[in-house]
Write a structure and sequence with these properties.
Number of strands: 9
Strand content: 15-25%
Structural class: alpha/beta
CATH superfamily of the largest domain: Response regulator
Largest sheet: 5 strands, parallel
Helix content: 25-40%
CATH class of the largest domain: Alpha Beta
Number of helices: 8
Radius of gyration: 18 Å
Number of domains: 2
Shape: globular
Length: 220
């Protein structure tokens, strides 16, 4: 099977016997590392795309402007914003409590489409996303895939926290692989505020050093 990356247009071939029949799987582009949904057997690649992230983005783009979809009517300068994508009420309560104590202005998305609508109008400072949000997983989580595709000069202004039970809290390799800034295990939600504050401080220091280095070589 020949596969094309929608982001960088790289084409490559995958042996059919390496793919499970009748399922949609997610591959990583060997050039730009974007995630590519591929359908096999009855689940064709066209079906995968039609029911996947691009179809949702196309749907959002085709919507007429509706001010009611904007997450905020007015924000004072300096107010930090957070988007929570979590459908487990007990988990979202803990996340919301931590963010409220940190003075975030919070929006909660009940579904993938709502999350993408909100992000259409606003770049959030913080996004807290469950790996299983809206029935997905890290490979088919459309909100996570969308965040991984936005331009880096926009993406680096948003801090992404991926919440789940399939990784250790603070595992930087998993965070990098999933295009997140921090991964948090459900067992550590009670300590979320402390962990988040430390990770935000580390992230701020990283970009301070990066920006200073870019200035020295004339790229900032």
């Amino acid at each position: 099977m020949e596969v094309q990356c929608e982001k960088c247009k790289t084409r490559f071939k995958i042996a059919d016997d390496k793919l499970p029949e009748g399922k949609v799987v997610t591959l990583k582009c060997p050039k730009c590392e974007s995630k590519i949904p591929v359908g096999t057997g009855e689940a064709t690649q066209a079906d995968a795309g039609a029911s996947g992230l691009q179809s949702i983005i196309d749907e959002m783009a085709s919507d007429t402007y509706d001010a009611a979809l904007k997450p905020f009517e007015f924000l004072e300068e300096g107010v930090e914003t957070a988007l929570i994508c979590e459908q487990d009420e007990a988990v979202s309560d803990k996340i919301r409590s931590a963010l409220e104590s940190m003075d975030y202005n919070i929006t909660e998305a009940p579904s993938t489409r709502d999350a993408l609508k909100y992000m259409r109008f606003h770049t959030f400072d913080l996004v807290v996303l469950d790996e299983a949000f809206d029935g997905g997983d890290p490979d088919s989580n459309y909100v996570l895939n969308y965040l991984g595709q936005i331009p880096m000069n926009t993406r680096r202004h948003a801090f992404i926290v991926l919440v789940g039970s399939n990784f250790r809290t603070g595992d930087n390799m998993i965070a990098f692989h999933e295009s997140a800034n921090l991964v948090l295990h459900h067992d550590n939600l009670d300590d979320f505020e402390r962990i988040l504050k430390q990770s935000l401080a580390d992230n701020q220091e990283f970009y301070r050093v990066l920006n200073e280095s870019l200035k020295k070589v004339g790229k900032a």
